[in-house]
Amino acid sequence: xxxxxxxxxxxxxxxxxxxxxxxxxxxxxxxxxxxxxxxxxxxxxxxxxxxxxxxxxxxxxxxxxxxxxxxxxxxxxxxxxxxxxxxxxxxxxxxxxxxxxxxxxxxxxxxxxxxxxxxxxxxxxxxxxxxxxxxxxxxxxxxxxxxxxxxxxxxxxxxxxxxxxxxxxxxxxxxxxxx
Length: 179
What we know:
Helix content: 40-55%
Mean pLDDT: 79
Distance between the termini: 15 Å
Number of helices: 7
Shape: globular
């Protein structure tokens, strides 16, 4: 996220103007067997090949209302355009009249992502038979499904206090730091 998504100056300017931001680092100073940092430097080609939605539970985005209640949440790395799209969805969830309405926005979005993935798969059966690394179209369908899955994985966070939730993450992750 830091080296790709947040390297997008327009996205960062919009985020800073639109949200109160906090960075919750999973394990900021962790090392593998005490020898090397967990966060390796990656070549541009490796970053370009990294799958949208990769990172799983290591990367979580929480969009909260002013009272600190999570209204939208997802896991994984997303390129700047997709991340902004999800932040916009988060704004809609915050603006919703109720928690149930926010959840309905998320449910509808997940269904739309699944439908879009199914359409891509149906329209491109030859691409779907290729290994995913060899097909941009298959990766696109997989990214849509992964984003929809991320909504479901993070459903339990929606409606929780961000402080309680990040405290839980702190206990699970040893050494996390709010910046």
